[in-house]
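Sample entry (121 residues):
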Amino acid sequence: MFANKYLVVGAVLVAATIGGAMSNPQFALAKGKTWTVEMRQAKLMQDINVAQQHKELTDKEAKKLRSRLSDVARKKKKFKNENKSTGEKLTAENNKELEEDLNKISSDIKKYQLEKRVERK
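Predicted structure, serialized as tokens:
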């Protein structure tokens, strides 16, 4: 009889603990950050600057990557101007194209950084 009582109390405590933990935002399912095109452009520019300062990119590589980032900015501006008549800033297709360009730039930054790391060894 006492064993059953302790078992029930223990089960209630476990349930309350788990329930409390699940309601805590720290334990909620992790949700990825949603990055806008503008946020990614700024982050990539920062990545280029830091990598150049740490000698992970040459001046020539950094200049080329910055040029490609400015090409993306021009393309975004062009898309926005084309979409003024519809009232949309950027269509899903526009965003997809810009994201692909930014992905290539991000990939190249990492590639150049890895090359420098391998050269130093």
